[in-house]
Amino acid sequence: MWDHHRDPLGIAVPETRADYSRFDDPVHVPNAWTGTMPNGAPVSTSSAFASIRTFYQDDPARPKIEAYLAGGAAPVFTYHRFWAQADIALAMGSYAELLE
Questions:
Q1: Do residues 13 and 5 make contact, with C-beta atoms less than 8 angstroms apart?
Q2: b/e code 71-95 from CB counts within 10 Å (16+ = b)
Q3: Alpha-helical segments (H) within the chain
Q4: Chain segment 29-52, per-residue pLDDT in tens
Q5: Does residue 68 sit in helix, strand or coil?
Q6: Distance from CA of residue 2 to its chain's centroid?
Q7: Phi/psi class of residue 88: alpha, beta or left (left: φ > 0; alpha: ψ in -120 to 50)?
Q8: Which pLDDT score, from 0 to 100, does residue 41 have?
C-alpha cells in the first residue's frame, strides 16, 4: 500500500463510480415542509439530490461527471475517505507495535 497507493493526501486507490447517474434522484421531503439548506438551496417536495447540493457545481471534477451523464464512460476518482485513512493508520500502528 505504502509503495503503490500513496499520494500527498494519504493512501487510496482509484475507483470507477457509475452512481453519479443518481444525481437527479428525488429526495424525500414531507409534503408540508419547505426550507433552505445552509448553502442557500431551497428544499421542497420537488428537490433532487443535486439540487440541494449546489456546491457540486463548483467542483473542478464536474466536467468528468457531466461527460458521464452525457453518455460517456463512468468517471474514475481517488477518494480519501476518513474511515479508510483511519483504518490504514491503525493497521500501520499495529504493525509497528508487532514488528518494530
A1: yes
A2: eeeebeeeeeeeeeeeebeeeeeee
A3: 62-69, 82-99
A4: 999 899 999 999 999 999 999 999
A5: helix
A6: 23
A7: alpha
A8: 94
